[in-house]
Amino acid sequence: MIPADPADPVVPCADPLGDPFLRTRIVLPTRPTTFLRRQRLVHHLDQALQTPLTLVNGAAGAGKTLLAADWAAGLRQSVAWLTVEVGDRRPSVFWAYVLQSLRACGAQAPGAVGFPADATRVDRKLLAALAAALNDRDEPVVVVLDEYDRVTAPEIAEQLEFVLRHAGRGLRLVLVTRTEPLLPLHRYRAAGELTEIRAAELAFTPEEAVALLELHGLSLPVHAAGALVDRTRGWAAGLRLCALAAQESADPELYLKEFEADRSTVADFLLAEVLKRQTEETQDLLLRVSVLERFCPDLANALTHRTDAEALLVGLHRENAFVEHLGHAWYRLHPLFGEILRAHLRVRLPGLEPELHLRAARWLRRHGTLPETLAHGAAAGEWAFTAGALVDDLAIGQLFTGLRSDDLDQLFSRMGPEATGLATDLVRAARDLSRCDLDRGLAHLHHAEERLADDSPGPAHDRAPGPAAARLSCALLEALAARLTGSPERAEKAAEAADELRQQVPAHLLEKHPELTALLLTHLGSTRLWAGRFDDARAALSVAAGTPGGASTVLPREESMGHLALIDYLNGWLGRAERKALAAVSEAERLGLPQPCGSAIGRLVLAAVAVDRHELGRAQVLLDETADLPSGTHDPVMAAGRAITTARLLLVKGRTRAAVEAADPAVSAAVTSPWAASHEALVASAAHLAEGRPERAAEVLQGVCDHQPGCAVEAARIQLAAGRPAAANDLLDSIHTDGRTGPAVTVRAALVRAQAADGAGDADTARKLVAQALLDARRERLRRPFLDARAWLRPLLATAPLQELASGWLTPGASRRGESRDGERRGGESPRPEAQPSPLVAAELSGRERDVLERLARMMSTEEIAADLYVSVNTVKTHLKSVYRKLAVNRRSDAVRRARDLRLL
């Protein structure tokens, strides 16, 4: 017998089990004062009025209930609200509460449908009567079933789907749940009759997080709120709990940035609402996989020594138990949940964490995921295993490529001296050599080579690297050591060994790590260049520069192109050198990769070209950019190039003594570089000549001029200065260029011959030689030789034919202020070549960089540019930095002026 309501005998006051109806279950939940209405979600929920079924599906604390309650409170339609409880698993109790909620909102007249009389089942007639009554309504009623995940009986799901299907437009059903309901969602989805709001949409955005924190009396900038959102994945309860805790902190912003999840109310919430709801087996699984960034069923089984992980993970994901599906059977834990589980693991299973990391590392190594293998091997403290995995995979080159070099260096920085073995020696050698620490790097490399010579395998659990992989890694490090010590013979031996060893390692590993071959060839080419074997160097460097592999080989490709640019420059081809150097510099910048040891060679070549073009400000900026790199003092090619360029810049500025001192690269090398020695002598000779000591200048060049056209030209200039024009011409006649010597040398040679002809009174020959020199130099914008020769050259440049050839790039044009129409300057002054602004060829600017530059020219501030382009201020600053670098300036006004010189504006 069902007790009746004394006020209305038709309406029962108790459920079919005889328990009184709980009114709190059928009223809208109260929204707290700190509740934030998110209009985007309210708008989405409005679609529920147009579809029979709506699903709001998210994890515990995702804000589902408050969202639905806030939305429902604003509706004009009748809203029946029911918070489902565990006891509603009996169909009779569930439907009794549904009917009670309909009556409470006035959507169902008392006695119109009836009431479940049997406590064990629900009569089909009752459901049909309910569906019919709803279908007869003029206006649909909205029924919200909160905590619907507590309904686990398939029978109730079938009954609910029956009523929904037959109620027609009279019912709009909204399910608020943590799990997928047992309803044919696919049918409603296919018919366009389903509105869905899921976890990704429920997550707070950084802007919403800022607004929520403001409701709690906290002020946080958007970027800081973004970091908090990343850590919480925008989880509503996590943000609210953090805000409440931050209110009690002396420094709320610092607390929100650094709070310890396992020591907060967030931990209490997740442990109570998620972990403790699971079975013992599932709890054990969650605790063990908490040491992983991501996991699949097989990996989880390896950590638990069970075989049921797949079913458990699928279930956890379906239940929104803070287990996120990444696709292809891979999962990850919510970041905060993972932090809390790891802390819980250390309490419940102390000492197990390192063992779990080692199990994970071994499984990952078998399945070919190297970065995760290394991370877990390091976390387990198994350094022989971890280093062995790196060497075995032929991945030791990644310590140099810039893609993962910083991460790997930091990871292996934790490796203590107690870790011993072949692989650990190789990794230590690679780390030291990557920082150009020669003494320590060579010592570790020597230890590794001794172990290879002994060929004694280590303990089985260490998984010592295979001999071929270890020897090939050793060959790479030998080539780098040869480069840093200027040892051509050592480099050639390393290259020969590498060629043989490539046949002994699996082909797929070589294809997987193209950076190893690219690095080897780059080191070989650099060493050959140091030895003055330009053709052999170009052969190796060209192959390295053309190596495929995308981002993994971009830095060795950049270095190779920089070295090729240096060869072109040393041969006198400024334009070719500049194009290669710009390509080298822009390649790594395009991908945003860091600059490794030695990669500044491209900027160095650009600086040298700038000196020859008399672009002294640009040359200084580029030299300054290379000043702090370790390669400037340890890589012989880089050190010599920088020393010579710096010396030539000082020489141009008239600081002859400082130039001579700067010309010595002060590097220790196994062999002397012929071109480095020759250019050092050229600087010293030019300094003596500038100080009026031609005989001393000639002495400096003795013994270094063989097969060096540049030296021969300088020696000829000295002979001419000493009053021996015949000797000067004889020296020039002895130069054999074979078409390899470029305008930087041939223009200087032509000017020496022209000066000799002019001194002999042969004006026609002098003019013809200067004309040819001007034609050759104009293509390269080569100004320096003419400025060095200005004393005798000015009268010739004042003549009409030569003035026209020089106008606009070497001397001011006829239309410039201070000149008459016939090209003669007022007051009888000669043209001043150095007064002409220096046009440049800059690295190509991207479209967005040009947009920023144009607004810079309009005197817009960084903030105004950001607003105008709809980007962040930080993005604008990043583009500005790139523009400054490509234009070789460091101020806004200089960037605008240089851009106008280049006709970029």
Automatic annotation (TrEMBL):
<dbReference type="GO" id="GO:0003677">
    <property type="term" value="F:DNA binding"/>
</dbReference>
<dbReference type="GO" id="GO:0016887">
    <property type="term" value="F:ATP hydrolysis activity"/>
</dbReference>
<dbReference type="InterPro" id="IPR036388">
    <property type="entry name" value="WH-like_DNA-bd_sf"/>
</dbReference>
<protein>
    <submittedName>
        <fullName>Helix-turn-helix transcriptional regulator</fullName>
    </submittedName>
</protein>
<dbReference type="Pfam" id="PF00196">
    <property type="entry name" value="GerE"/>
</dbReference>
<dbReference type="InterPro" id="IPR016032">
    <property type="entry name" value="Sig_transdc_resp-reg_C-effctor"/>
</dbReference>
<feature type="region of interest" description="Disordered">
    <location>
        <begin position="808"/>
        <end position="844"/>
    </location>
</feature>
<dbReference type="InterPro" id="IPR027417">
    <property type="entry name" value="P-loop_NTPase"/>
</dbReference>
<dbReference type="Pfam" id="PF13401">
    <property type="entry name" value="AAA_22"/>
</dbReference>
<dbReference type="InterPro" id="IPR049945">
    <property type="entry name" value="AAA_22"/>
</dbReference>
<keyword id="KW-0804">Transcription</keyword>
<dbReference type="GO" id="GO:0006355">
    <property type="term" value="P:regulation of DNA-templated transcription"/>
</dbReference>
<dbReference type="Pfam" id="PF25873">
    <property type="entry name" value="WHD_MalT"/>
</dbReference>
<keyword id="KW-0238">DNA-binding</keyword>
<dbReference type="InterPro" id="IPR011990">
    <property type="entry name" value="TPR-like_helical_dom_sf"/>
</dbReference>
<feature type="domain" description="HTH luxR-type">
    <location>
        <begin position="838"/>
        <end position="903"/>
    </location>
</feature>
<feature type="compositionally biased region" description="Basic and acidic residues">
    <location>
        <begin position="816"/>
        <end position="832"/>
    </location>
</feature>
<dbReference type="InterPro" id="IPR000792">
    <property type="entry name" value="Tscrpt_reg_LuxR_C"/>
</dbReference>
<keyword id="KW-0805">Transcription regulation</keyword>
<dbReference type="InterPro" id="IPR059106">
    <property type="entry name" value="WHD_MalT"/>
</dbReference>
